[in-house]
């Protein structure tokens, strides 16, 4: 345990120790920190204490404005760093605990910090890996018999997103405008989206990476998965419905994607690993792995309108419902020789479970706008209104502790006038 007192309900227990990029009013420089309870351990202050065989020559990675350099060092360096941080924060280790001056410089209260994007995201890929979600959406648009396309059970379907519009939690999201065709008997129209939606997702950051032309085999995929964040892949369903044929999502997606600021290391999540989904038909050999690599992560979405006193929970689900694993996603992404780089972001796709309350999008919760989502107090929604604040939360529950992600939040601003 740590010498820093941590409430059992805190997302940031001693078992977690996620990495993030933060700044403060008295020191606007962006730097690497680790969350512990309601504190941040400033790694730029204590970087000289990383004296292990791998990090002793790379202490400067903790004095950078992003995590990219640290991610690039690879999984053995990540393990060494985590072990060092655990040691320094341990109740039995005096180096930090008993040095009052060092503690005053190295520990920052989270309430005094501004969080930033954890990485310079070079590329962003979004998958479509929840069978329940894919089945729901396919049923809406193609009917139950043709809900899943022929390739869906054979490979992790995905598309390349827009990295430039990935933003950190609490960044406002502007309602997008675009072309839509609400009446199929008439030409398309232009205007603000009337079907603005959420997508409850998770994502992982790539570390290490591979050379162009050299795939990452499934046996090595875990070595390139640095850690996970929560994600809200905001979606304009009416823009998307008109534009997506034949090349898929474009302007209905790329106006904003929100992620939580703390990156939870995979080592912190491994105790919560669950058996992978039963995949039938059996994937091709390059996608097969037996080790469990899906995780029992409790997820929820709440919505608070401008006139609401309290937020209403509209979804409760779990990451363990995913069909394709992160290892399969990364392996498939690179099987053709595509290179991924430290800081690349790969998202799960909307996470839906088998029950209506576990559907991870308003498209599903309102069944394409055909029924209201009850928020209580007479408030209802089918899709998002201006001023709505959406917050995604996620955590793994241990015995008397949590490994959580902190909030992933955003508020909808009105569309700009054109």
UniProtKB/TrEMBL annotation:
Native organism taxonomy: Eukaryota, Metazoa, Chordata, Craniata, Vertebrata
Catalytic activity annotation: 4-fumarylacetoacetate + H2O = acetoacetate + fumarate + H(+)
UniProt GO BP: L-phenylalanine catabolic process; L-tyrosine catabolic process
InterPro entries the UniProt entry points to: Fumarylacetoacetase, Fumarylacetoacetase-like_C, Fumarylacetoacetase_C_sf, Fumarylacetoacetase_N, Fumarylacetoacetase_N_sf
Cofactor(s) it depends on: Mg(2+); Ca(2+)
Domain called Fumarylacetoacetase-like C-terminal: residue spans: 125-408
Binding site for Mg(2+): 233, 253, 257
Binding site for substrate: 128, 142, 240, 244, 350
The protein, known as: Fumarylacetoacetase
Residues that, per the record, bind Ca(2+): 126, 199, 201
Assigned protein family: Belongs to the FAH family.
Keyword Manganese: no
Transmembrane helix as UniProt keyword: no
Active-site positions on this chain: 133
């Amino acid at each position: 345990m740590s010498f820093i007192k941590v409430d059992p309900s805190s997302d940031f227990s001693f078992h977690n120790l996620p990495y993030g990029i933060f700044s403060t009013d008295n020191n606007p420089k962006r730097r690497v920190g680790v969350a512990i309870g309601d504190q941040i351990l400033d790694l730029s202050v204590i970087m000289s204490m990383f004296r292990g065989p791998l990090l002793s020559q790379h202490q400067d990675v903790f004095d950078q404005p992003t995590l990219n350099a640290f991610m690039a060092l690879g999984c053995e360096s990540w393990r060494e760093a985590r072990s060092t941080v655990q040691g320094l924060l341990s109740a039995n280790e005096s180096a930090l605990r008993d040095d009052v001056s060092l503690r005053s410089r190295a520990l920052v209260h989270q309430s005094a910090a501004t969080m930033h994007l954890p990485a310079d995201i070079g590329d962003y890929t979004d998958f479509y890996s929840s069978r329940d979600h894919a089945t729901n959406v396919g049923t809406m648009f193609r009917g139950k018999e043709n809900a899943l396309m022929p390739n869906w059970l054979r490979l992790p379907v995905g598309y390349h997103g827009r990295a430039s519009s990935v933003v950190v939690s609490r960044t406002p999201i502007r309602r997008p405008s675009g072309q839509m065709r609400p009446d199929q008997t008439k030409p398309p129209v232009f205007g603000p989206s009337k079907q603005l939606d959420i997508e409850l997702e998770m994502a992982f950051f790539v570390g290490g990476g591979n050379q162009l032309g050299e795939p990452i085999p499934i046996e090595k995929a875990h070595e390139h998965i640095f850690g996970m964040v929560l994600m809200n892949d905001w979606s304009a369903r009416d823009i998307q419905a008109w534009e997506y044929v034949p090349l898929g999502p474009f302007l209905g997606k790329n106006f904003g994607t929100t992620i939580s600021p703390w990156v939870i290391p995979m080592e912190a999540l491994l105790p919560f690993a669950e058996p992978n989904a039963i995949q039938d038909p059996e994937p091709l050999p390059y996608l097969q792995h037996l080790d469990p690599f899906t995780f029992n992560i409790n997820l929820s979405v709440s919505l608070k309108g401008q006139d609401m006193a309290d937020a209403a929970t509209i979804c409760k689900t779990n990451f363990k419902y995913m069909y394709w694993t992160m290892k399969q996603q990364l392996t498939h992404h690179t099987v053709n020789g595509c290179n991924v780089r430290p800081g690349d972001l790969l998202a799960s796709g909307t996470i839906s479970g088998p029950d209506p309350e576990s559907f991870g999008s308003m498209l599903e919760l309102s069944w394409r706008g055909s029924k209201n989502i009850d928020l209580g107090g007479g408030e209802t929604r089918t899709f998002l209104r201006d001023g709505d604040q959406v917050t995604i939360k996620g955590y793994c529950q241990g015995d008397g502790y949590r490994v959580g992600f902190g909030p992933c939040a955003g508020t909808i601003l009105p569309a700009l006038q054109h």
